[in-house]
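Example 3.2
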Amino acid sequence: MKLRGTSIRTLQCAAALSLGLACSQVSRADNCSGYIAEVNRSYEQSLELNKTNRMSSFTSYDIITSGDNPNFDGRMGECHGTWLVMSNGDPKGGAYCAFTDKDGDTAYVQWEVTAQGGTWKGVGGTGKWADNVSAGWTKLVARDDKRTLLQWGGICQQ
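Structure, written as tokens:
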């Protein structure tokens, strides 16, 4: 899906506003940053480990925006991973994602997360992403049952 004539900032604000948030600027010293909007997350399987801990596998469909790195802007993809939810309610998780850019090249990303954010790193891909060595952080902005908005940044290389 291509959105012609729509600015990145407009998309970022639309994602934030859909979750009832104000728009803000990223103020980190990274060479790339933006937002990740996760939608239609599904939990395929849940395993109760004991009375207070459980493990769930999930799929999320993500759109990435970046106002400062055109190669990272507009990528869309899917993540598959697992959450471990402990008795105190804090989740820990990990996933692998495949994000396709406007040229049809796909970046593979490994992701680790806690309740407040996490880290990500490129682990290869196709075309321009074959030697992807980018890495960075994510920070939770908002979440509900069906949507998550993350702020992200990092050192982006290809």
